[in-house]
Specification:
It contains ten helices and ten strands. By secondary structure, it is α/β, with parallel strands linked by helices. It has one domain: TIM Barrel (Alpha-Beta Barrel). The strands form two sheets. It has an eight-stranded parallel beta sheet. Helix 6 links the parallel strand 8 and strand 9. Helix 2 runs parallel beside helix 3, helix 3 crosses helix 4 and helix 7 packs across helix 8. The protein is globular and about 55 Å long. The two termini are 31 Å apart. The mean pLDDT is 97.
């Protein structure tokens, strides 16, 4: 699996997302993914599964230094002291000494992006994480965070799939030399029944999910699909060894006209 690099961070291009994975399913999925070859695991305090994800890391039998682990701090814990306690709690639950990447999960509705990124800087400077980043940040919030940060912000993790056009946000992320990490990269499976994607999958002898993930990679995104099925976990990693044509990519791009955003909540910023 190839990797993307930014500001000293090297992130495997396919990771396992663990949103909505709980209990034993979270542990077994993480262990199965790592044993299948994944080296990137994504979790969050808000998922309520860091303990189970940590157990999956240990059950995998793969050394900690081989796995890129991301977690996220929720918007109600972004004050300076709260953020330090939150990061320490994540490490304790995961059973690790340091995160590879720690993100602000959603922008605060009461604190500025400048204030919260300075607090995240301090978490990194304490050695609790190797790298820092953000999630669900708009163009304006990215600019505000970069204007205030002392440490490089390596990634912006946001929703991205064929139904959602994120070209403007992608350009802003690129401007700052950041990696765009796509969550819900399969549109929560909705796009997999699209005739265009099924046709491309048939021609390549691949699954529709593999086609969409290959589309993500060729467009320069990191993707973190979620699955609890061992066969699908393996398939989602098996996206090397073939290339979509420009016509294939354009056909998938056309699905953006649907304009569907899956994750839009009361805590969401004003989207670009």
């Amino acid at each position: 699996m190839h990797t993307l690099t930014a500001h000293g961070a090297t992130i495997p291009a396919i990771g396992l997302g663990t949103w909505m994975l709980t209990g034993e399913a979270a542990t077994t999925s993480v262990a199965a993914a790592i044993q299948a070859g994944y080296r990137h695991i994504d979790t969050a305090i808000g998922y309520g599964n860091e303990t189970e994800v940590g157990e999956g890391l240990r059950q995998s039998g793969v050394g900690r230094d081989e796995i890129f682990v991301t977690s996220k701090i929720p918007p109600d814990q972004l004050g300076a002291d709260e953020m330090l306690r939150a990061a320490e709690g994540s490490l304790e639950r995961l059973g690790i000494d340091q995160l590879d990447l720690l993100l602000i999960h959603w922008p605060s509705q009461t604190l500025s992006a400048a204030e919260t990124i300075r607090s995240l800087n301090r978490v990194k400077q304490r050695g609790l994480t190797k790298h820092i980043g953000v999630s669900n940040y708009t163009i304006r919030l990215l600019d505000e965070a970069w204007a205030a940060t002392e440490e490089p912000i390596v990634a912006n993790q946001c929703e991205h799939h064929p139904y959602l056009n994120q070209d403007k946000l992608r350009a802003a992320t690129d401007k700052h030399g950041m990696i765009f990490v796509a969550y819900s990269p399969l549109g929560q499976a909705g796009v997999l029944d699209e005739p265009e994607i099924k046709d491309i999958a048939g021609r390549f002898g691949r699954t529709p999910a593999q086609i969409v993930l290959r589309w993500q990679l060729q467009k320069g995104f990191v993707a973190i699909p979620r699955s609890t099925h061992p066969a699908r976990i393996r398939q989602n990693l098996d996206v090397e060894g073939f290339d979509l044509s420009a016509a294939d990519i354009a056909a998938i791009d056309e699905l953006r006209s649907v304009g569907t955003r899956i994750c839009d909540y009361d805590i969401s910023p004003e989207w670009d």
